[in-house]
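Reviewers of the previous submission asked for a worked example of the structure-prediction workflow described in the proposal, so we include one complete record here. The input consisted solely of the amino acid sequence. No template or homolog information was supplied to the procedure at any stage.
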Amino acid sequence: MLQSLTGINKGEIALEVIVVDDGSVTDNSPVIDQFKKSLDIRYYKKVNEGVASTRNFGFSKSRGNSWDLSPMTTRFRSHISRM
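From that input alone, the workflow returned the following structure tokens.
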């Protein structure tokens, strides 16, 4: 998913990516770091407090006024397993 976002013509839209890790035992920062040069991406790690809390946390970090929620757990895990 992150790879597909790098191909968007950012001159047409303002795009920020916020990734909230809510208690994973896996360190996802190496995956995020790969996209920092091509995306406006921020990574936050927090204690697992449930889906609603995690979404609200992500919203609070956003600079925009419209959102798309994409649970990426399986995508990150599959990417990390190939590293």
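The chain has one domain: 2-7+15-82. We consider this example representative of the routine output the project will generate in years two and three.
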